[in-house]
Design a protein that fits this description.
Elements lengths: L1 E9 L2 E4 L11 E8 L7 E10 L5 H11 L9 E7 L2
Parallel strand pairs: 4-5
Antiparallel strand pairs: 1-2, 1-3, 3-4
Length: 86
């Protein structure tokens, strides 16, 4: 199983929207990639921040991430790796 898409951090929380137009109020965009190498293996999720709004202060983005967490959390069935390109 494989899946790929985009999560956008907005003032209302995380929104998954894979196609344009992306949410107008987004402050960050993260590329989401999931792979499951075998039925008995944990899912592997890779989240990479690929875009940051230049109109939103870093403190405001940090506050939203604190409020809403990550777009996808690790679980016993899923490993999550976070990376930032920007």
């Amino acid at each position: 199983m494989n899946d790929k898409g985009y999560f956008h951090l907005t003032p209302k929380g995380w929104v998954r929207q894979d196609n344009l137009p992306y949410p107008e109020d987004r402050v960050e965009t993260w590329l989401y990639e999931l792979e499951c190498p075998a039925e008995d293996a944990k899912d592997r999720v890779y989240l990479t921040r690929i875009w940051v709004s230049s109109d939103t202060a870093a403190k405001a983005r940090d506050a939203l991430r604190t409020q809403f967490g990550e777009p996808m959390m690790a679980t016993p069935e899923r490993n999550v790796t976070l990376e930032c390109q920007v």
